[in-house]
Specification:
Elements lengths: L2 H5 L1 H5 L6 H14 L3 H12 L9 H16 L4 E14 L2 E17 L4 E11 L18 H18 L6 E8 L7 H12 L3 E8 L12 E7 L3 H14 L3 E2 L9 E3 L8 H6 L4 E6 L20 H19 L16 H10 L22 H10 L6
Parallel strand pairs: 3-4, 3-5, 5-9, 6-7, 6-8
Antiparallel strand pairs: 1-2, 2-4, 6-9
Helix pairs in contact: 3-10, 4-6, 4-10, 6-10, 8-10
Length: 385
């Protein structure tokens, strides 16, 4: 390939005959189909087996270590972000007092290959509480539905994204100290805001395991009017790729939309900081009677339902983050530069009959075409180190 054909004409004239939409649909379908209910169940069972994950307890710290090991076994670097809990409040007649208690959020990242500085935050809290017991008897707070289900979903999505390349970064955060005031997520959201991080969406998973008798295939997405676009994108993906769909149990509308958020889970901390955020729950009607009690055991969890919501959120994340994507740093020197341009130009216009050119199909549509050049040009000059 020489002259204008190599350097100019392909980028100005090529229109290609391809269907990136159909390629993306197949790629997302394949990822969604990989969600394993048995994997989710195993993680829920292990978390419940700690007996309690009440903040500050020995079992809470044991759960932190186990979760840390889970991320590391998947190949992620994981860090502990510490924060301090100072709480004095009465909830359902029980008094809870915690002073100068250090707790942690666990953070791991799946780095985007096109726009790594823009991210989706996927989070769930790992602590538990039994409000039918006083603080001195929190040695049994199994927290199966609330929120071992959400944590298991985060771990499963992290497992499935590990070897899949997305355009944006996906950051996984397991929050401590949610149950008495969203303390862990408030600390993380404030840090994200203060650093000016570019967050496309925060998605918080909380209480995913009890299927409604009224609308058994529904779950609920909570957000505010400012962030309807991204919430609808996630809802669209759920309907396109799974057997569950988003509904508000109160109004019957597609989304639960309030002026400031439901104030009921960790996504609220991000809404409070002006960050696009969505809360994901089982069908949101009256609270399930076992939530936040010592009866929140594994028997309360419908793992097939948890798996389907996990598939829905995975589909939404892949759609928002951009999937499939491949890195434009073809020569692996850490920067998208002229050397990468020469390699890309050589492969331009080829079909995927030759495996050696697959790396240049940045949008995964089966051809190296103009759509790939647009992705490449948008990344030119970017450092990926």
């Amino acid at each position: 390939m020489t002259g204008y054909k190599r350097y100019i004409l392909p980028f100005l004239l090529a229109v290609g005959v391809f269907s990136p939409a159909s390629a993306q649909v197949q790629a997302i379908q394949d990822a969604v189909a990989s969600v394993e209910a048995d994997s989710l169940l195993s993680d829920v069972e292990r978390l419940v087996a700690f007996d309690t994950r009440f903040m500050g307890s020995d079992s809470n710290w044991a759960a932190v270590e186990w979760l840390e090991d889970c991320f590391q076994a998947m190949g992620y670097d994981v860090r502990r972000d510490s924060f301090v809990v100072d709480v004095s409040k009465s909830v359902l007649g029980q008094q809870f007092v915690l002073n100068d208690l250090t707790q942690v959020n666990l953070v791991a990242s799946h780095r985007g290959v096109i726009n790594p500085d823009r991210k989706i935050v996927l989070g769930a809290h790992y602590d538990s509480i039994s409000l039918d017991r006083p603080q001195s008897e929190q040695d049994f707070a199994p927290g199966a539905d609330d929120n071992a289900t959400g944590v298991a979903a985060v771990l499963e999505i992290a497992r499935l994204l590990r070897d899949r390349q997305t355009g944006m970064t996906v950051e996984f955060v397991l929050f401590g100290a949610e149950e008495l005031g969203l303390v862990g997520s408030a600390a993380h959201a404030a840090a994200v805001s203060s650093r000016g991080e570019d967050v496309a969406a925060m998605i918080g998973l909380d209480v995913l395991g009890t299927r409604s008798d009224i609308v058994p295939d529904a779950f609920t997405l909570d957000t505010t009017a400012s962030y309807l676009d991204v919430a609808n994108q996630v809802a669209d993906a759920a309907e396109a790729y799974t057997d569950v769909f988003s509904r508000d149990g109160s109004s019957g509308s597609r989304l639960m939309v309030t002026s400031i958020g439901c104030r009921c889970s960790d996504h609220q901390s991000y809404l409070n900081n002006g960050i696009p955020a969505i809360g994901v729950f089982q069908y949101f009607t009256n609270p399930s009677p076992h939530i936040n009690t010592s009866t929140d055991t594994i028997e309360q969890v419908d793992i097939a339902y948890v798996a389907e919501i996990t598939r829905a959120i995975l589909a939404g994340i892949l759609d928002v983050a951009g999937f499939p994507r491949r890195s434009p740093d073809f020569d692996a020197d850490g920067t998208v530069g002229f050397g990468d341009f020469l390699l890309f130009a050589e492969a331009f216009g080829t079909e995927m009959t030759d495996a050696s050119t697959e790396a240049f199909d940045l949008d995964g549509d089966g051809q190296v075409a103009f759509s790939d050049f647009l992705i490449f040009s948008g990344s030119f000059g970017r450092s990926f180190t």
